[in-house]
Write a structure and sequence with these properties.
Number of strands: 3
Structural class: alpha+beta
Order of helices and strands: EHEEHHH
Number of domains: 1
Oligomer: single chain
Helix content: 40-55%
Strand order of the largest sheet: 1-3-2
Low-confidence stretches: none
Length: about 90
């Protein structure tokens, strides 16, 4: 990722099922086992559901999510991540 990541958490996401972790590895393992979208928050990480992604103004069905491995922190495809990042930045 060449660009700084926009904020990927809002208070409106609190009602959703968010799984919080102190390390990336724990979050990644949870995402692999139970699915979801992996994001950073300050020094922590969380895995969330599709409705929370919508709350960020992004489409959870966008094919770029699969390309990045549903992982905002260490995306498999930097170009797909950049497209999603630009969408999020546009909303801020």
């Amino acid at each position: 990722m060449t660009e700084q990541s926009p904020v990927m958490w809002t208070a409106a996401m609190e009602p959703f099922h968010n799984r919080w972790f102190p390390t990336y590895d724990e979050a990644w393992e949870s995402r692999e086992e139970e699915g979801g979208w992996l994001f950073p928050y300050r020094q922590h990480f969380f895995v969330t559901e599709a409705d929370a992604v919508r709350e960020l103004g992004l489409d959870p069905d966008d094919p770029d999510w699969e390309l990045i491995g549903w992982d905002w922190v260490r995306p498999l495809d930097p170009e797909a991540w950049e497209r999603l990042r630009e969408q999020r930045e546009h909303l801020l």
